[in-house]
Design a protein that fits this description.
The protein is an alpha/beta fold. The chain is 42% helix and 18% strand. It has a domain of 32 residues. The strands form 5 sheets. A 7-stranded parallel sheet has the order 5-4-3-6-7-8-13, with helices on both faces. The protein is elongated and about 105 Å long. Bound molecules: uridine-5'-diphosphate. Uridine-5'-diphosphate binds next to helix 9 and strand 10. The site of uridine-5'-diphosphate (UDP) has 15 residues, from helix 9 and strand 10.
Length: 396
């Protein structure tokens, strides 16, 4: 082809928006492209081809195929935050009940020793989407118990960003990967903190959502994202709004993960690690002026998760349950009862109110009993104090 023909071909190609088909014996034989058009097409095609190739290699099953895959077995569960206080208790209960368990924890608060024997442990962060996708590609899960979160009210007031990132963003990422890999079931750790300051006690699940701290807001937002995935992406969820989780298993073999909670501080005083306890606020409108909370044993919370997995396919796709006893105890009652049962002197001093604390939180647990059939077994103060004491002695 001489230069003038070539020039003509180029200008014709440009005129047609970058592409020209040349015929030979009445059939398309050659496509002429400008360099720009060629690059443009290449960019459009490549990601698509790569995505198809990737999908084929991962053999993602549909929700129905995943159900069939696990039929006749308990299934395999991803436990996020399984090195933490509640997560490790739940992981242990799952193993005892015959589930396969994979724990994912970044150990920011959780402890490696808390991951029960028999569970596979992966150290990593939910915000690491590449890692999460790798895990879901390698392991086939049918359910996720999502505990990983930041959980301290006062800290959430000081560092709200941390709570929105760790509790909202990480949940969104987890859900998107679950949906991609067709893992249908999630049991989510939410909190009574999202009820804020309620007039009517006990609080049922239909109460207004009115959090008074970023922790409560973050869990509320996470619940909403889960609800979206249930309504529009085929997931099923049981959301548990825990009241005040405390106690320990009867072996007391879990390393404490949080130092600010009332029971942690009371036990630190009882074993002599701290001189005394500060009561945060004596001027609340309660019978003794201190905050009232509904203390629920961690074993009850862990076992309720098994009930949730058993019934996750029944009823509405997105269901919310309080986990609490229906009975409140004041800060002073907890301290005096502990002193009495352990026969210890627990010195107290009065402190200011702690930021973000609602005065009273007591659960109505009717729905938990009626729908999930779970009756609390361990959540009396005596058992809570005895098991916390065992744990405290194991961790001197
Ligand atoms: N509290 C207290 N002294 C402490 C720790 C906690 O008076 O050293 C109070 C706290 O202000 C709240 C109640 O005990 O009213 C329960 O607090 P915790 O941190 O155990 O749980 P939260 O209700 O914040 O989830």
């Amino acid at each position: 082809m001489d230069n003038s023909n070539l020039q003509e071909l180029i200008s014709e190609t440009e005129k047609r928006g970058g592409g020209l088909i040349l015929n030979f014996q009445d059939k398309p034989a050659v496509v002429v492209l400008t360099v720009d058009r060629y690059n443009q097409l290449l960019n459009q095609i490549q990601p698509k081809t790569m995505a198809i190739a990737e999908e084929a290699s991962q053999e993602t099953l549909s929700f129905e195929e995943t159900d069939k895959f696990f039929a006749g077995t308990k299934g395999k569960v991803l436990v996020t935050g399984g090195a933490g206080f509640i997560g490790s208790h739940a992981a242990k209960e799952l193993l005892l009940a015959g589930f396969e368990v994979v724990v994912l924890d970044n150990l920011s608060a959780g402890k490696r020793q808390n991951v029960p024997q028999g569970a596979k442990f992966i150290e990593g962060d939910l915000l690491d989407t590449a890692l999460l996708r790798d895990i879901f590609a390698q392991e086939k899960f049918n359910s996720v118990l999502h505990f990983a979160a930041s959980i301290e009210v006062e800290e959430s007031v000081r560092e709200p960003e941390r709570y929105f990132e760790n509790n909202v963003l990480n949940t969104a990422k987890l859900l998107s990967v679950m949906s991609e890999y067709k893992v249908k079931n999630i049991v989510f750790s939410s909190t009574c903190a999202l009820y804020g300051q309620q007039k009517v006690m006990p609080i049922n699940e239909a109460a207004s959502i009115a959090p008074v701290n970023p922790y409560g807001y973050s869990k509320f937002l996470a619940e909403k994202i889960i609800k979206y995935y249930c309504e529009f992406a085929g997931l099923r969820a049981v959301v548990f709004r825990y009241f005040n989780a405390c106690g320990c298993n009867f072996e007391g073999d879990v390393v404490p993960t949080h130092k600010t909670h009332l029971f942690a501080n009371v036990m630190d005083v009882a074993v002599g690690k701290k001189q005394g306890i500060t009561v945060f606020g004596r001027d609340y409108e309660t019978f003794d002026g201190t905050c009232i909370r509904d203390y629920v044993h961690v074993l009850d919370i862990a076992k309720a998760h098994l009930a949730a997995l058993e019934k996750i396919d029944e009823g509405e796709k997105f269901r919310v349950y309080n986990i609490g006893t229906g009975k409140g105890s004041s800060v002073l009652e907890v301290i005096t009862k502990t002193a009495e049962l352990l026969n210890k002197i627990i010195p107290m001093e009065n402190g200011d109110r702690r930021a973000g604390d609602p005065p009273v939180l007591i659960a109505d647990n009717t729905k938990l009993k009626n729908e999930l059939g779970y009756i609390l077994e361990y959540s009396d103060l005596d058992t809570i104090i005895a098991t916390s004491w065992k744990q405290a002695q194991n961790n001197l």
